[in-house]
Write a structure and sequence with these properties.
Blueprint (H helix, E strand, L loop, with lengths): L4 E6 L3 H11 L6 E7 L5 H6 L5 E2 L2 H5 L6 E4 L6 H10 L3 E4 L7 H12 L6 E3 L7 H12 L5 E8 L6 H4 L15 H4 L2 H11 L4 E8 L8 E9 L5 E7 L7 E7 L2 E6 L3 E7 L3 H7 L2 H8 L9 E7 L6 H14 L12 H17 L3 E2 L5 H15 L7
Parallel strand pairs: 1-2, 1-4, 2-3, 4-5, 5-6, 7-10
Antiparallel strand pairs: 7-11, 8-9, 8-15, 9-10, 11-12, 12-13, 13-14
Pfam families: GFO_IDH_MocA (PF01408), GFO_IDH_MocA_C3 (PF22725)
GO molecular function, one term: nucleotide binding
InterPro entries: Gfo/Idh/MocA-like_OxRdtase_N, Gfo/Idh/MocA_Oxidoreductase, GFO_IDH_MocA-like_dom, NAD(P)-bd_dom_sf
Length: 387
């Protein structure tokens, strides 16, 4: 029987509390709570209700011998330093998304993890366990749809009222949170988009900062990306659309995939590459096309599938997979090194909107990004600059 991995939860807030409940309910059969850490002393009673040790300093918990692994449910800027300290002390690290706020910081953790190949370093991309997106990745990886031509994701279901931002002084700030919708709400989509379609090479973006909310960071994003083989993409997100849209489209040489509301998938498969169909269509066919008389079923077949999900299952599956990887039974579904892709794209979108220029993601200028980020942190006047 597999060893139960003792997980140390750093930060007993909404996310950390959710993981603690799942583990205490036995929903992850190969993992249990080893200890809990939080800087707020009032969290001690809640932690002790789980029957595990409580620590106010994450370093003390990591070196206590009470845990085999940790998860970092803390503000984004803290993920890399906590991940590095855990790995330094031979503790496996499951880092919440994003793995870092800026690429220089994220890469420090990723590069250090390479020096500890015997330890597992993962990122908490729970949407990678979503069967819908797993199926889409399988389809794209198989090549059955042909090469990618264009992909777009409109994900505006992140409506947040002003009261959400007024919860604390660090929220929706450059120095406290490191950005807005790109680093707080949309990292899962930035990850999934690249996981399924591939990483883009360039990005040009127009962001709105404090557009419909009294905040310093971005609450609306329009980004255009280009891929190595000429394919293109668009990513649109915001936090001020109370109705919201969630629609992913992937157009390929031999068909199209459309996902609505992360639940309904429509796959249209062409009988042949679109360019071949175009060349073989004579003027008589064109006339029928224009008059609505062309029988499109001879060219395309359509499959529709609905998916259901049970709340919490995806998070539990990430923890189960991570524990199985620690036990040498499975590969990580979301290796920590994959986390750089979302961070780099988010940074590139910021930098492009700040400079008005297209940004090269392959040779990303992380020093310029950090310089621009620090200008905004300094302007806030209440947080230390980053290095």
């Amino acid at each position: 029987m597999s060893k139960k991995i003792r997980l140390g939860i750093i930060g007993l807030g909404a996310e950390g509390g959710m993981y603690a409940n799942f583990l205490s309910e036995g929903r992850v059969n190969n993992m249990e709570i080893g200890a809990i850490c939080d800087i707020l002393p009032e969290k001690k009673e809640a932690a002790e209700s789980y029957g595990v040790p409580f620590y106010s300093d994450y370093k003390d918990m990591i070196t206590s011998g009470d845990v085999d692994a940790v998860v970092t449910t803390v503000p984004h800027y803290l993920h890399p330093e906590m991940g590095i300290f855990a790995l330094e002390n031979n503790i496996h690290a499951l880092v919440e998304k994003p793995v870092g706020v800026y690429t220089k910081q994220a890469n420090e953790l990723i590069q250090f993890a390479k020096t500890k190949p015997e330890l597992k370093f993962g990122v908490f991309f729970n949407q990678r366990t979503n069967q819908l997106y797993k199926d889409l990745k399988s389809i794209m990886d198989s090549g059955e749809m042909g090469k990618l031509r264009h992909t777009s994701w409109i994900i505006t279901t992140w409506w947040r009222p002003q009261g959400y931002y007024n919860q604390s002084d660090w929220r929706a700030t450059w120095g406290g949170e490191g950005g807005g919708v790109l680093v707080n709400q949309a990292p899962h989509q930035l990850d999934l988009w690249q996981w399924i379609c591939g990483t883009p090479e360039k990005v040009f973006a127009r962001n709105a900062y404090g557009f419909r909310r009294d905040i310093a960071v971005e609450d609306e994003v329009h980004a255009l990306v280009s891929f190595a083989d000429g394919a293109s993409g668009a990513f649109i997100t915001c936090t001020h659309d109370i109705i919201g849209t969630d629609r992913l489209e992937i157009l390929c040489d031999k068909g199209k995939i459309v996902v609505d509301d992360s639940q309904k998938v429509t796959i249209s498969r062409l009988v042949e590459n679109e360019e071949v169909l175009s060349k073989d269509m004579d003027m008589e066919d064109v006339k029928k096309l224009f008059t609505g008389q062309l029988d499109m079923t001879q060219y395309v077949s359509v499959e529709t599938k609905e998916y259901e999900s049970v709340w919490g299952n995806q998070h539990c599956e990430v923890m189960r997979n991570f524990a199985a990887a620690v036990n040498g039974e499975e590969e990580l579904l979301a290796p920590g090194s994959d986390g750089i892709n979302g961070v780099q794209l988010a940074n590139g979108i910021h930098l492009s909107s700040w400079t008005g220029q297209e940004v090269d993601l392959v040779n990303f200028d992380e020093e310029t990004y950090l310089e621009e980020l620090n200008k905004r942190i300094k302007g806030e006047g209440k947080f230390e600059e980053r290095n």
